[in-house]
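REQUEST FORM: STRUCTURE PREDICTION
Request ID: SP-0412
Submitted by: Lab K.M.
Chain count: 1
Length (residues): 636
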Amino acid sequence: MRFDNLRSVQNTNIHQDDDGIRPSELLSIADVISFFKHFWPFIASASIACAILGLLYVLTATPTYTATAQLLIETNQASGPTIMTPEAVVSLDTPQIESEIAVLNSEQIVGRVAKTLLKGDAKADAADKTSPPPTASTNERGWLSRLLFGALPPPTPAQEAEKLRQIELTIQSNLGVKRVGLSYVLELSYRDPDPKKAAEIVNTLGDAYVQDKIDGRASAARRNSLWLESRIEEIRRLMNEAAIDVQEFKARRDYRLADRPTSSDSNLGLDFLPKPTSPASPATGDSAAKAAPKDNQAVTTPQEAPTLEELDSRALTYQKIYESYLRAYTDTVQRQSYPSTSARLITRAQPPKRKSSPKGTLTLLGSLIFGGILGAGAALAMSVLNERVRSSNQLMRHIGAPLLGEIDDTRWRSRLPIVGKHLGRQQRRKRNALIVVSHPQSPDARQLVKTAAAINDAANARGAVAIGIFGISKAIDDAAVCSNVALLNARAGKRTLLIETEPGRTNLAASLVSDLQFDLKDVIEGRAEPEAAIVQYDIEPALSLLLVDKTEAAGFWTLQRVAKLSELIKSLSGSYENIFVHLPSGSDTEVVTKAVEGVVIVAEIWQTSLAELEDVASRMRIVGQPPLGVVSAKFS
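STATUS: Completed
RESULT:
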């Protein structure tokens, strides 16, 4: 982010309507860059951790091998008896092929494979028992166990069924069936730690499917033949009766025939044929009395009796039906004797040479990507839940002052999760106070030069000589900003005075002066003159120091002492061109700010909370001390 553009930011109205959306609150590219710049060590740590877990999985997981075979399924063909002319063969559609895939995964086919495997294991166990020396199988106990507890009882049928069921479930879970393009070929695949067993199961599955098709055709032909046998006997009887009716009609040369019951026609679906009747013969005596109709029985007239052509046609029809059923029966018996199917294994499986899982490269790559996504999600959740300052624009908007500088001296080690914040913190604080002297060509030293120039410009615009610098919280190294800015002004040839007012761990006395005869407290309480307490910095003579002892209590500053400090600064402003005062952080900030003419606030992006920022801004408005600007500082 360019500092020239940031300096041109004017004070924003912090009393805007909360219901309206400010343009600066929208997510910008700078916010995204700031997010990844701050959290990239955390995201990288999560990716590396997941990659290590992925590597452990690759090294410890049992490798599996996948054997594949190709099966050609049969197309639709007429499987019933050819009594009528067969229709055209219809090609298989997607639901029919999906049905065949479901058949391959069914218990009927998988059960055949499981039984075959059990038979093979039984034969292998029998071979192992006959070969010396004997090896103890999993179902047998050792000699000591047999001596103490006896031999294992033979498995019960329920145990055998449960074992078979477990094998079926294992095969179904590791089996894969998919269609090859738009063809009638299905690809069978099976995963197993043993490559030979994987190939054996795939080939057995294909053979079981083909055998099931053959058995299905044989069973269907057997059922058809039984049905045809019963129908052929009935049609033969009807055909003979129709032939007898024709012969009787021709022999008597009479157009009237006696009625013959044909109740079985309806069972055969032959109701459309004419009913056979016998011609009425002359009735005399007892025969006439027997042939006399009853009161509720209709009398067949000569007009209703069938003709010779009708009887002949009926007999011929029964004969054709009989011949058709006979041909169908012959064809069915042939199919039953020689069942066949077009389904077959066109490519048999071979034991695979390479393992199919785990795949090392893909696993590691996926672990890295998953870790990055997981780390980014966790970082985003932390940034949302913590409600901290996420960008310089947000910092300027809440303070209501322009950004005077942005310093980022953090190392990637300090951004590591959990341990990064505690790596040599005290040693870093001593080093940060003298960055422009110890590392003048470092990137953070160049950023401090720009920040010092911006602070001088803001102070000259307001006509301020005494400038106070303080941090929003004690976790911010605002003392490093104050000392380095003072050193830069002194190295520029300006008479500069640096006053330390905050006791504690950020005190500059530990970094700049080894021993103090008098300190700021002695001057304020009248025990020493200012000239006696002011010391010259050894490295830069143009820089004078007036420090408070680091052993002073935190509640040192009262209103009376602040008034005396203000008088002291006014009395010294004529002797120095710049006076930089390191103000205490916390509750004493708004009290001590009355002693200076301008205030620079130091905050840290991704560490300063919005609540602390709003609290400091409110205190500055209450005191009536508008800040000169804000500095974003982040030291390692």
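NOTES: Residues 389-635 form a domain with the Rossmann fold fold (CATH 3.40.50.300).
Reviewed by: T.R.
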